[in-house]
Amino acid sequence: MVEKQIPETIRDTHPGFVDATVGTYEEIKGKIEKKCLKNAHRKFAQGIQCLQYNSVNVLLSLQDTVMVVHSPLGCAACGALRGIERLNVYKHHMGQADAKESRIISTALGEKEVILGGETRLKETIDEAVARHHPKIVFILSSCAAAIIGDDIDAVAEKIEKKYKSEGILFAPVHCEGFKAKNHATGYDLALATIQNYVIRLARPPKKKGLINLFTPHTVSYADQLEMKRMLKAIGLDANVMPYNATYQDIMNIPAAEYNISVCQIYADDYMRFLKEKYGIPFAKTCMPVGTRSTDLWLRSIAKIAGKEKEAEEFIARERAAVMDEINEIKKKTQGLKAFITAGTGRGFAAATIIGDYGMKLLAMHTPYYEDAYIDDFKLIEELHGSGFLINVAEIQPYQQVNLVKKYNPDIFIGLSIWTSRLGINTTHILDPKRFTFGYRGALYLGRKISDALSNNNFNRKLSKHTRLPYRDSWFEDDAFKYVEFPEE
User: 338 by DSSP, 3-state: which?
Assistant: First the structure.
């Protein structure tokens, strides 16, 4: 039996977790600082993201691996379609069109397996996966259906690993049932814990001087990975990017690193704490390096734990000098404009700092979750934008978003604009799978995107005239939070 070093974690249990609340920062600031912000009850929800999707995306690009998703066919398809699309972009940019990334195979559970159990089907699928692809690692992902019928994926993994012992194949179960947690970021945690428990296990490789683990989710483009590696190299550190496109050896080098850093406040934070406790590897926990201010903080936090403060300050000065003239030129166009932001929590805070670079003001931010890890980020945003901006904590609730955007009527909306573009409002986003958005060069690129969106709004304007959103006019006049029940004080 494998000795689990990291127990399964549920991010919903993190200090201060909230997935439904609303208020201006001025109204809820006291509760945030005192760590007593309470969760509201959502009487109606329009959608929620499955955490299995994030587990799939952590593991998707790992080389020489197979993912066997023990589920009805739709679960595997949901996680695979968008992930494979993004992965193909990565492969093109890396010049590795034939890279042996993970294959996704579904057990395609049906009525028979739901009634009689699906473990036999799972074993047959794993055998077929090994015969086809000869992987080094087989990840076995659970699902809501598999958990409800009680299939024991741990027992299957343990038994089948003995069968293939002579071939040295590792079998790693991932308990990422969709109903396990409200916070879909739990899917990241579960996948990273599986990598440690079933792949690295008890290995203790020798330390590699200057090596830093750079933990990045699947939403970070290859261009941004290269930009972060460039910035780290400039201060004397060599980045081991995890887990995107990692080889087996890259994974085994995780405990060999001298330092750990993530791209945002909560991605891999539980795992980095474990690595500090188990291997003594210090980590920097900071904001996403989007915008000049956030990039300053990101680099300085790394430099502090690595003793590279001098190198970091010299690099920051050079990089800022190279972009500030054009940033200030763009700022003449954007100064004083008001923005509405919808993004993942870490990227949302980053977007709030990038608009600060360009002299814009934050009207409101729509973010999926809150936990106490974001207290300092709110303080930074208050320094830039004051305390009057609205915070709407809600995951995938477009009925609220379009109501608020129409009422606030911002100069620009920053986020995925499937819904709001039909309101005719200027829109752009900072989530780009093809180009770099991180660092000082990324700050300049995003500034150009904002400027372009303000200069040419023809598409959104024409779209608003010829299409309509699936809501009655009465909804836009109603309270966006009528279906949210707030706790008594």
Answer: strand
